[in-house]
Amino acid sequence: MTDGQRIAIASDHAGFELKETLEAALRAMGYDVEDLGTNSPDSTDYADYAHPLAERVATGAVPRGVLLCGTGLGMSYAANRHAGVRAAVSWAPEIAELARRHNDANVLVLPARFVEPELAVQILKTWLDTPFEGGRHARRVEKIEPSSLTEGNSR
Ligand code: RB5
Question: What is the CA radius of gyration of the chain?
Fold first, then answer.
């Protein structure tokens, strides 16, 4: 059930066109989409878009987000600086599936210059539909935050 579920999306210029495609796909699936830009193919800096989106996910304002840039790397570096954000660069549905099952990825990052639109929609759908497995993976995900080192989390 996706009706009304909120999701944020943002890109730099390299991801702009694919962002528009994925945003339309999300709306067609019934998502309530927050588009945080960019709004044209004019040159921009990816971090200016990654940080606001990651902040929305980190604070729980939106449960999930999607970021796009040329390689996916700049967006993931910036987003993953935010505590609680797990941004996964995914270039195949299998990676998106494991990013959900094992890593509970709450941000999907797409390398817009290296995936065709049809594949990108497939990756997005897989990521949206795959649940987190929990169990041993929950323990591992907890250990991602550096604060777990000082909380005696040495299991
Ligand atoms: C923009 O040319 C490009 O550097 C950017 O989209 C991204 O790939 C950075 O990681």
Answer: 15
Q: What are phi and psi of 131, to 5 degrees?
A: -80, 160
pTM for the whole structure: 0.95
Per the CB < 8 A criterion, the answer to whether 115 and 109 are in contact is: no
Percent of the chain clearing pLDDT 70 (strictly above): 95
Distance CA 19, CA 101 (A): 24
Domains along the sequence of the chain with CATH: 6-151 (3.40.1400.10)
pLDDT, mean of residues 9-27: 98
**How is 46-91 classified by DSSP, letter by letter?**
THHHHHHHHHHHHTTSSS-EEEEESSSHHHHHHHTTSTT--EEE-S
pLDDT band at 150 (very low <50, low <70, confident <90, very high): confident
Residue 151's contacts (CB-CB under 8 Å, 6 or more residues apart) are none
Mutation test residue for ligand 1: of 45, 48, 69, 75, the one with most atoms within 8 Å of CB: 69
